[in-house]
Amino acid sequence: xxxALAGLWPMRRxxxxxxxxxxxxxxxxxxxxxxxxxxxxxxxTLTVMITFLVVFGGHRLxxxxxxxxxxxxAVKFFFVGVAVAVIEETFFRGALQGALQRRxxxxxxVALASVVYSAVHxxxxxxxxxxxxxxxxxxxxxxxxxxxxxxxxxxxxFVGFVSLFLVGCVLGLAYxxxxxxxxxxxxxxxxxxxxxxxxxxxxxxxxQDVASWPMLVVLLVLMVxxxxxxxxxxxxxxxxxxxxxxx
Length: 247
Prior knowledge:
mainly alpha
C-alpha cells in the first residue's frame, strides 16, 4: 500500500489529479466533524454488529488478556486504525474511486472500487518461491497468477469477500456523497480499532460471519440518510469537476 501511495505522485497528472483536493483532502471548516463523526459512527456500528453476533449468532467472547494488556491493545489499535484508514482510503477511495467517478456513473464506480478493495485483502503471497536461476521476464505474471489462484480458494474467502465488498460500498458512498475523504477515514479507523481489538482479545471477527451482511446493507441505507442530513458535501473538485481547491 505504501508503494501504491508513492506511485500516486508521478501518476497524479496522468489520471487527472493536480491537487490534494482532487483526491479528497479538501480545505473545509467542518472536516474534523466528518472525521470525528465517522470515527464514532464506526466504533458504534461495529460494536452493535458484534453484540448482535454474540446474542443471536452463537459467538462467544473469550477474553484472555489482562486489563493492562487490553488497555495497551486499545491504544495500539487506535493508531493502527488511523494509519490503515489514511493509507487505504487515500488509495481506494481517493485515487481509484475518484478516477472511476470521472468516467462513469457513481454507483458503478463505487462498486468497482469496492471489488478491488475487497479482493486485494485476500491476495496472500505466502509460499511463492521462484529460484533465482529460473527468474525470467514473465516471472512476475506467473507469480501473480499463483497468488490469485491460491488465495481465492482458501476457506472463508467468499464470506470475507462479500463482507469487505459491502464495507467498501459504505465507505465509497460516504466519499462520493461528502466529496471528501474525512468521513470514510473516520469510519474506517473506528472499524479497524474495534474489529482488530476484538479479534486480538476475544477471537471475534465480523468479516467472517454471513450475519454481518444484512447489517452492512442497513448501514449502507443509513449512510444515504446521514449524508443528506448530517454530513453535508464538503465540495471536493476531484468528484464534482467544479474547480480546484487547496494545493
